[in-house]
Amino acid sequence: MFDTIILMLDATMRVATPLILASLAGMFSERSGVVNIALEGKLLAAAFTGAAMAHVTGSAWLGLFAGIGISILLSLLHGFAAITHRGDQVVSGMAINILAAGLTVTLGRHWFQQGGQTPSLTGDARFAPIQLPLAETLQDVPLVGSLYSNLLSGHSLLVYVAFLAVPVSWYLLFKTRFGLRLRAVGESPNAVDTAGISVVKMRYSALIICGILVGIGGVYLSVGQTAQFIPNMSAGKGYMALAALIFGKWKPITAMLACLLFGFLDALAIRMQGVTIGDFPIPVQAIEALPYVLTVFLLAGFIGKAIAPKAIGVPYTKERE
Amino acid sequence: MSQAKVPAWVNVALLPAINVLVAFAVSALLFLYIDISPIDAAKVMWIGAFGYAEGFGYTLYYATGFIFTGLAVAVAFHAGLFNIGGEGQAYIGGLGIGLVCLTLGEYAPWYLVFPVAVLAGALFGGAWAFIPAYLQAKRGSHIVITTIMFNFISASLMGYLLVNVLKPENTMATESRVFNANSWLPKMHEMLSPLGIEMAASPLNLSFLFALLCCLFVWLFIWHTRWGYEIRSLGANASAAKYAGINYIKVIVVTMLISGMLAGFFGLNVLQGELHQIKLNFVEGFGFTGIAVALMGRNHPVGVLLASLLFGFLYQGGAELSFEYGVDRNIVVVLQGLVILFSGALEHMFRPSLEKAYLKFFAKQGVA
Questions:
Q1: Residue of chain A whose Cα is closest to the Cα of B134
Q2: How many Å lie between the alpha carbon of A81 and the closest alpha carbon of chain B?
Q3: Contact (CB, 8 A) for A209 and A173
Q4: With a CB-CB cutoff of 8 Å, which residues 184-243 of chain A face chain B?
Q5: Under a CB-based contact definition with an 8 Å cutoff, are residues A46 and A217 in contact?
Q6: Residues near B145 by beta carbon (within 8 Å), at least 6 away in sequence
Q7: Mean of the pLDDT values across residues B149-176?
Q8: Which parts of chain B fold into alpha helices (H)?
Q9: Are the Cβ atoms of B146 and A88 closer than 8 angstroms?
Q10: Which residue has the higher pLDDT, A105 or B142?
Q11: Can you give the pTM of this predicted structure?
């Protein structure tokens, strides 16, 4: 029983990692007033680029940088459309998602001729699991040993990065001048502009941070978790991260908790296969749909209220024509 | 603003045309990169989609699906609502249509099944759009997010139904049993041949005509009814409309119901017209592409019709392309993405320079 719980929590951490990174990314963008439904596309593009680069160079690190790079580029494209040309942010996000879905498969087939997959990554082209100090020694200690050695130790570097990114993001957003300005841009761009701070610059910086974080999340999918890129491997995780962001009310810690909850539900769905209550088998799909259903309930105000940044989705116009 | 000085056709026709051309130009670069001559590719696509009768039938068949999802997005846009849920509404609407075909189809011929299927598609698709609409109107949850969530919920729901309820025993594939052949919508070539018109066999079916009717309906509804007027007022300026006594909740709900119904009709073409069974993921992203169709069509039924033809062409042409060159069909998805990017998100990029150029040109004319 205890081992089962450990196993499930372990799975939860792995599933939650890309969600956490993507929803932190979304948080920076949306806190600055730019709606980001493009997280899905950025995850996918970063996963592909990361795996392709890691395969070609044999270095997971270069893969990571390439993945982050492409994700930043897509973020800048999003910014170019949504900030510079005041285009519709949702449409721009959709375009990026669709572009990423098409380009990854087309280029993947052209480069590797494996139906859009990249060859499997081995050795240095992967982020190997990190054994925390004393993990092996403590293995046999009851409870603590299992918790430490099996749950906390033995993850890929990027998992730790994701969990570390949460307090860092919190600090950046709520304890620094930059964070204050960034949040202000999302609430009242006019006031920020009046104070002599460039709305455009703030939003672009937010999008660049967004690109870095979601890029790491994407690379984790292909280089950390699976060791290969598979077409459409983001499979809705970007949207789920968006749901977690709303669920966490645009705050880092609560967003992380929402990601962990969603990750746990995912692990549960796999465990629940074939489990019945009385004569009624629990449908796996019902557990899969739970995060989305919960988000709908939250948005409807049935379980607390999710208040979005005020200026979200509104392009800023400096001069009224 | 300089808009007043520029005639409407510049904004309605020229600007979208330029945006699409730029999208095509960028995709041409991609074609070059993967060692395909863009001109040859365009030729293959053009001939594949329009050059022979069967291909043209396929083009119109795909266009039919895009008309439904495109109109759905367009109607919602008029009220200022962004309905991203076309995918889910088409999926659930298709469930309604499929259930009618599976049950009623056993006993009745297609001309009796069809109207019931239309109702069922409208009912199911409408219902799936109703919940997000109601939540937006009454509880202030955002329609974009709720409809995205509903897309996923519909995918899980359909997955459950197809695996556990609709799948006949002794099969591995997640699909319902095949509808009784009596309930299949007649193909166009079958309908036209008694009239002496010979057409090549293709999946193009009766629902194409129904789609055209829907275009007409949307045009009448949006521009020639009181409801349509209220919808447009709300979309133009929500607070002004509210002050003018327009019932916000009613208009939001009605608009989304119509939108969901239109998306729900998607199954008529694909399920009752062609697949003849409910399959997993039969919507295949047509709901999302509907957004591009509506954007390009400037939310007008005529525009949606033309944009649907364009996307039908891209789809069928893309199929030919992958057949001819062995490239992935997803290259068409890239084209779609670029079209959405340039004619949607970057819609305004070329406007200022285009207006400037136009005015400069005409100022000269005026002097001369």
A1: A300
A2: 5
A3: no
A4: 236, 239, 242-243
A5: yes
A6: A242, A243, A246, A295, A299
A7: 90
A8: 8-9, 15-33, 38-46, 53-78, 86-103, 110-139, 143-160, 188-192, 207-224, 226-236, 238-243, 248-264, 266-267, 286-296, 301-325, 330-340, 351-367
A9: no
A10: A105
A11: 0.88
